[in-house]
Amino acid sequence: MSEGHEVCQLYLITPNDLGNVHDFAVQLESALKAGYVAVVQLRMKLASDNDIIEACHILQPVCHKYEVAFLLNDRADLAADVDADGVHLGQGDRDIASARSLLGAGKDIGVTCHDSMHLAFEAGEAGANYVAFGAFYETATKNTSFRSDPEILTNWDAVTDLPCVAIGGITPENCKILADAGAHFVAVCSAVWGHIEGPEVAVQAFHEALNA
Predict the structure, then answer these.
(1) What is the CA radius of gyration of the chain?
(2) Are the beta carbons of 128 and 110 closer than 8 angstroms?
(3) CA angle, 64 as apex, 61 and 67 as ends, to 5°?
(4) How far apart are CA 1 and CA 86, in angstroms?
(5) For residue 4, what pLDDT is reported?
(6) Cβ atoms within 10 A of the Cβ of 70, count?
(7) Architecture label for domain 9-210
(8) Pick from 56, 111, 46, 112: which is nearest to 85 by CA?
(9) 33, 81, 139, 188: most buried by Cβ count inside 10 Å?
């Protein structure tokens, strides 16, 4: 994930339950083919290791076809096994140093920092490639007791070049607020996969909002 930004980019998170992974791969391709998504994070928190690995083998080639980075949630060990482009770590997951030893220097490591600049600075000092702040809005995708203010994006962007991701309840209607505040990426899930007209239309809506 590159430092600096002119236009905030889309960071797409998969649902926890993909259903039939081959059918989901078709949906993923429809979301990526317009070229507006920069990152896909596979988040299958309740799945077995075998199911996660199978999904990686099917979905990562789709991402790479469109030059989109493919990250795995939580599991640096599995990310290393499938040669994913990186891993996203929560505060309760493996530490950055051990994840780096598994993945190597050329992979991306992101860290959830909730509403804390302190956690973000710690992550940056430990070698994270990006930090994630949120949730910014109500979200049904993930239970969270943290609520961030867009000002944290502005403050972070003013003091460091390390990219930041905004996450939590982000829609085409509110994403521009976060982009203007300083987010390098907006992470989206249900607003894309649950869109009544499908993920391709949803991604286009985000692109138009971010570029308005």
Answers:
(1) 16
(2) yes
(3) 165
(4) 10
(5) 45
(6) 22
(7) Alpha-Beta Barrel (3.20)
(8) 56
(9) 188
Q: Residue 57 corresponds to which tokens in the numbers above? A: 């083998």
* Of the candidates 35, 36, 18, the residue with the CA atom closest to the CA atom of residue 27: 18
- Helix, strand, or coil (residue 93): coil
The tokens describing 210, both together, are 């971010």
User: What does the CA dihedral 63, 173, 210, 45 come to, rounded to 10 degrees?
Assistant: -30
Against a cut of 0.85, is the pTM above it?
A: yes
Series of mean pLDDT values for 10-residue runs along the chain (212 residues): 71 97 98 96 96 98 98 97 97 89 97 96 97 91 74 97 97 97 98 96 98 91
Give the strand pairing for 130-134 and 86-89.
Answer: unpaired
**Conformation bin of residue 79: beta by default, left when phi > 0, alpha when psi is -120 to 50:** alpha
Residue 211: predicted pLDDT = 94
> What's the confidence (pLDDT) of residue 138?
87
What pLDDT is recorded for position 125?
A: 97
- The pair of three-digit structure tokens given for residue 89, joined into one six-digit string: 């770590």
- Residue ranges of domains in the chain: 9-210
DSSP H stretches of helix in 35-95: 49-65, 76-81
Measured CA to CA in angstroms, residue 4 lies from 8, 161, 187, 195, 196 at distances of: 10, 6, 17, 30, 33
